[in-house]
């Protein structure tokens, strides 16, 4: 996996990617909430729930936890806890906007099935 000088990882073995549009939208939302984008970041996690068993969660955090994987892409810091990393390693976070819906989407190569609405998954 290649990174450029503007992108850094705390764990060089990490495989979480972020598209430029996802980073731009998240940074914009963080700034609108008065958050420090240098210290804070977007927490991406997996939780139990949904009709397929697991679902993604996202929230902004002011700082990472001690054991978090920290990935920086396009100026956005992404925090992932070790348990979630097992499910989402290799994933790409994207932001899509369209006429019918807009939002963040996780493209996860580990998923073996998703529910019909696409909100939960199984690995």
- Give the CATH class: Mainly Beta
- In the CATH hierarchy, the architecture is Sandwich
Give the strand order, joined by hyphens, for the main sheet.
1-5-6-3-4-10-9
Rg result: 14 Å
User: Can you give the helix content as a percent range?
Assistant: 10-25%
CATH superfamily: HesB-like domain
CATH topology: Hypothetical Protein Aq_1857, Chain: A
State which percent range the strand residues make up: 35-45%
Largest sheet: 7 strands, mixed
Strand-and-helix sequence, N→C? EEHEEEEHEEEE
Structural class, please?
alpha+beta
Number of helices: 2
Query: How far is it from the N-terminal to the C-terminal residue, by CA?
Result: 23 Å
**In the residues, how many domains can be counted?**
1
Unreliable spans are 1-13
Morphology call = globular
Number of strands: 10
Mean pLDDT: 81
InterPro entries: ATAP, ATAP_core_dom, FeS_cluster_insertion_CS, HesB-like_dom_sf
Pfam families: Fe-S_biosyn
Domain Core: 16-119
Protein name: HesB/IscA family protein
Account of the protein in words:
- By secondary structure, the protein is an alpha+beta fold.
- The chain has one domain (8-122): Hypothetical Protein Aq_1857, Chain: A (Sandwich), CATH 2.60.300.
- Helix content is 16%, strand content 38%.
- The chain contains two helices and ten strands.
- It has helices spanning 20-32, 82-88; strands at residues 8-9, 17-18, 41-48, 54-61, 69-73, 76-80, 92-97, 102-107, 113-114, 120-122.
- A seven-stranded mixed sheet has the order 1-5-6-3-4-10-9.
- Strand 5 (69-73) and strand 6 (76-80) form a beta hairpin.
- The longest helix is centred in the N-terminal third of the chain and has 13 residues, at 20-32.
- The radius of gyration is 14 Å and the shape is globular.
- Residues 1-13 have low confidence and may be disordered.
């Amino acid at each position: 996996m290649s990174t450029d000088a503007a992108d850094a990882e705390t764990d060089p073995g990490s495989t979480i990617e972020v598209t430029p549009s996802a980073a731009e939208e998240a940074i914009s939302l963080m700034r609108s909430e008065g958050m420090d984008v240098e210290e804070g970041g977007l927490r991406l996690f997996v939780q139990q729930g949904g009709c397929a068993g697991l679902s993604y969660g996202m929230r902004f955090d002011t700082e990472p936890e001690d054991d978090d994987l920290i990935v920086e892409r396009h100026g956005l810091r992404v925090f992932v806890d070790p348990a979630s990393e097992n499910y989402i390693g290799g994933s790409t976070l994207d932001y899509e906007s369209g006429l019918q819906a807009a939002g963040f989407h996780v493209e996860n190569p580990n998923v073996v099935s998703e529910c019909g609405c696409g909100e939960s998954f199984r690995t």
